[in-house]
Design goal:
heterodimer, A: globular, B: Translation Initiation Factor IF3, Translation Initiation Factor IF3, 6 helices
Amino acid sequence: MIGASISRWTMSYFAMAVAWLFVALALMVAGVGFPAADLAAPDTLVLVHVICIGWLSLAMCGALFQFVPVLVARPLFSEKWALPALALLTAGLASLLAGFLALGGRLPAWLWLLPLGAVLLTAGFGLIVVDLGLTAWLRPVGPARFVLVGLASLCATVAFGAVFAFALAGWAGSVGQLILAGGVPLHAIAGLGGWLTLTAMGVSYRLLSMFMLSPDVDDRKSGTTLMAGALAIAVTVVGGVLAIGLFAGLNVVLSIVAVLGLATAALYGRDLFAIFRARKRRQLELNTRMATLSFASLAGTALLGAALVVTGNFAAHVGAFAFLAVFGWLSGLVLAKLYKIVAFLTWLETYGPVMGRAPTPRVQDLVAERRASKWFMIYYAAVWTGTLMLLIGLPSGFRAAAMAMTAGVIGIVREVIRTRQLADVASPLRLPGGARAPHLLFARN
Amino acid sequence: MTEYIDVDVRPILRAGGEPFSVIMATLERLELGQGLRLYATFKPVPLFAVMADRGFTHSERALDGGEWEVLFTPAEAAKQTAAPATTPSFENWPEPAVKLDNRDLDPPEPMVRILAAAEKLGPGETLSALLRREPVFLFPQLEKRGYRWLGGFTPDGATYELTVRAPS
């Protein structure tokens, strides 16, 4: 078949991702992990992996199962793998988290849980990388190239993580211990910078130009941006491992990566300006307006990082830096796009079969933007406040900000569920003859 | 230049087997722009319509001993290299009864309008539409409703030209 159908399990991934986001918010409100605990403390490892694997990676994978077939106009290599992959990732994450709790003495010392979690996560991500990679490879141009580099970065991230897990259980020998001692920044940069950031950038190019009626960014321009980003990740992984192997410090490698990372963010900013300038649609939808706050957060993250390095405070405030990147840039963008993607897919699933045969609502009729926008504003304001609280070292203020973030996310998720339930569509149009209401957690494709 | 993947179903046919699933499996593995070169012990006329629905045009050549070689070419590639009117499988399509310019509509309005117009076509009639993007979500809807279509980007890549034909 030529074309793209509705991804069956994207909603299931989104639902699981949102569930983990609430776990992360609950931990932050309760003061578990950073900033109450040290950045390297087991409790912080629990928090970080709930956010990065449970929330961000699952949401990203769910979006890619739908998005990559659209990019290449071909069906997914295998839709059957999506649900087993979700099960493996969920079980793997649970095992990994239990392992961290064991490491911190909150559970008996069952350190074998860590390698078990790593094996399950490797299997789950492996299925996804092969599935999405083989699909994206059909037309490796434009945003699909970002996805491919993102998937390669995911492989590197998972490889580092697996070595750490085995090393923490004492099963990885002296080489494993060496990599564990020095490799944590490399794992974090490959995951947040390579997998999550480069993939999010690639997806955003297409979504923004699609929703704003703007021509696609020239492949050479976005190619330069990708090249800078890919080089940053390559230097991180290859240079980092070499530096560890040679017992040299990581400072030189990380400095090069920082410069390349700044260049990537600047080039991405240039591309975004081009998309916004060339747009035919003047009135922006909520998801695009909220995405701009996420881009502002990315710019803020870059500036904050540069300022901290120049003043020699980066090591002391790396937590605030990462927090802004994860919640301002990545989570903000994911929430904004989730809001739009769920509305569009729900509309297509419900009304596609009867379109042209009966009157159907517009996509915009499925959402109530005015109501949703206040929850997004609360969310972003809380994230920026939280960053500030971390910078000035006020943990109680941070927990208050986390509470406000939770309120914002509850509001946004409630809106998304209402969209999925067609709750805001007026009655005669809601279910015209032949249309079926969608299931909340999966699509009938 | 279209690249063709060879499928020789002659041994299956000689053994009295059913080659359709093998052909379809190969089709699923084709990369974008690739075509299919089929060898069969008879002229596979029923397959032509199936392949046209999947966006492939065909040209056949008789081999010795009553066997046939058929080239299935993706319609997009055929359209970009040759004028659509000369593409064999589509030459009997009538002039469009409806012409839509959906280039400046907010997504997904182009799809909505094409489906609405398609539903009003008489049997065998066609409509044409200009779009900014390849309408990937439209194709499954057209397929489910039994419509055939032919589409491709103009050489500058700025406009996607789509022709849809109602089932006759």
